[in-house]
Amino acid sequence: MFRGIDEVDWASLRHADGSAEDVPGLLRGLASADPAERETALDRMYGAVHHQGDVYDSTLACVPFLLALAVREEVCDRAGVVELLVSIGAAGGEGVDGGGIDDPAARARAALSAGGDVFARLAGDADAEVRRAAPGALVRFLDRPARVLALIRERITVERDDRVLLALAEGLGLFARRHLTAGDAHAVEAVDLLAALSGPPHGPGLRLAALGQLAQCAPESLPVDLVPTVVRLLRDRSGRRVRGGLAQDGTGVDTLAGRLRRLRPSDEEGSRLLRTLHAALGGRVADRVALLCGQLTNPDPLDRCNAVWMSAGLLREWRAGAAEPVALIGAQLGAEEGWLHDAAVAVLAELFELALPAADHLHALVNCRPEFRIRHRERGAPTLGGPLKALARTGDARATPVLAEVLAGPVVPHDLGLVIPHLGRAAAPLAPALRRRLARVPLDGPDTHERAVPLLSALAALGDAESVPSVLRLLRGMPNGLRLRDAVTGAAVRALGAFGGAAREAIPDLRGLLQTDCAVAAADALWSVTGEAETVVPVLLRRLTGPGSGRGRPADATAAADVLGRLGPAAATALPGLRRMTGSGDASQRAAAACAVWRIAGEPERVLPVLRAAWVEHPRTRITIAGCVAALGPGGAPLHDLLRAELGSPRRHRAGSGGYDRHDIHEDEGLLRVCRVALGREERG
């Protein structure tokens, strides 16, 4: 199976970590009799040779040897080899035929298609795990639709392993999706077979798998009572699994692949079945919410845990229907299973104000279980406990006395101050304790930043002018060279700005910062304290047009434009620079400049095209634009149509824009609030 391996010039080939001269050893490791060596070799194949789905010239060179390994019955863990081949062949997307002859991914797909008969043999292999991995490869790489469909149909009739049957259903769904677009009659046969598999006398797992595949390729074939059917099948499957015991996957080898399998005590197969269905249902939010509620009330804690994580996925993307599933997630906080409790806490903390239906459960937990108020870690400083953090982020005033107890205790997490803004004025009783802690922050400690910034944020949110002396102590006393000194300075300056005229004592300090990297924040604060436009506008204008603007520090230019917009007509001398900025820079700069021009000069005809384009093309700018519209009152009417459309959209404004940040839900809810404020003013006017 390694014939010719030494004839390949591996040293001249590359992978993610450089030279591929180690690849022959990895290939031989995949055939080792030692389980640890096999898993370590597979781990390294994914970590370097096929890093993050990339295909290198060394990846392509591995394909013939991996195919040879896959068919040798004496090789253990061949299923992992087949899965690796599927991943290599899927690089660049499903069904991708493009790519020139010099594209390693395209050449790898061609090599796998040339060896497609290998996967036809493996579909009937004696090893059930190999049979489980084979259908996906068979559909992707054997370019004879009639034979593929006949093989899958045959295997379904003779297969007795439930996990292999699920893989066959998934392969059948993939086959249908690949061939339906071409109008291939074989795809219709595949859909009919899936429809047959979705009903009796087949087992609940196979029926769930078939329903998930139908939802992806032929939703019109789904039963009208889909949700009750799925909930019933899930419970039936769970009962069978509990009676038969939950199979544990994988070895105890400490590799990346092994750790991922053991990440949490979950029924990954059941999770995949329901994830597939949720993904296929997409925007059918009412059905998905009803399905989640059924999952969250399942007697099996593993099914409920899977549902908790799926609820987070739904709520990150869609705006409707949160109350009932969130309340049911809160109910999991009383579960005996620690991993289910932890999952519920993690999701609720991510939901911020949307977790309010679970506030009673959170409050009961932090009251009766004080050990959950602070999280003590093996490494690093203690942090606020997840349940208390989640309760405070909902804005529930009941968090205030609990936080007061934590503040009075011997251990106070540095991040406690970060939840105070979410409580609003309900947190006002905490101001004296927060102020005292700020006064005790060391001026030159290694953790000055971690301790001071959350406290400054909290006191700024509370508008606690009595903390001015403590803020100035930091601002004046921190030594040069302190780690993250500028970040602490910026937080202190923003706090002084929040105190407004009550911070007049800080005027000399703020003026002294107008020539530093904190100039924009200092100018903003100085305007709040003194209203001296003639002092701050030139400083802000330099940040628009000077060396601190443009590609070097785009955030400075954006922030300066934001401040100039808030100054209104008092910033008229900045209009030429702002007008130029509406046509250059990144989307955030253009939107901020356009908003500033509108607020300063009232020139909607000049800036509306800029703002409309930014709103559609760059969703991150929507909060800035909506805030501008709200500030303009009736004058913002030309963009009210965008705000109404936003409020009517079921999807979160950054859903599908790539990446995910744990604050996305909170940011989106903030956008909706600003839109309501702006339109509410219109209605009252």
**Beta-strand residue fraction:** under 5%
What is the number of helical segments per DSSP (H or I, 4+ residues)? Answer: 36
- Helix percentage: 55-70%
- Parts with pLDDT < 50 across at least 5 consecutive residues: 246-252, 259-265, 548-552
* Silhouette: globular
The helix-and-strand class reads mainly alpha
Q: What's the Cα radius of gyration?
A: 30 Å
Strand order of the largest sheet: 1-2
Total beta-strand segments: 4
Task: Describe the structure in your own words.
By secondary structure, the protein is mostly helical. 64% of the residues lie in helices and 1% in strands. The chain is built from 36 helices and 4 strands. The strands form 2 sheets. A two-stranded antiparallel ribbon has the order 1-2. It has a two-stranded antiparallel ribbon with strand order 3-4. A hairpin with a 2-residue loop joins β1 and β2. The longest helix has 21 residues. About 3% of the residues have low confidence.
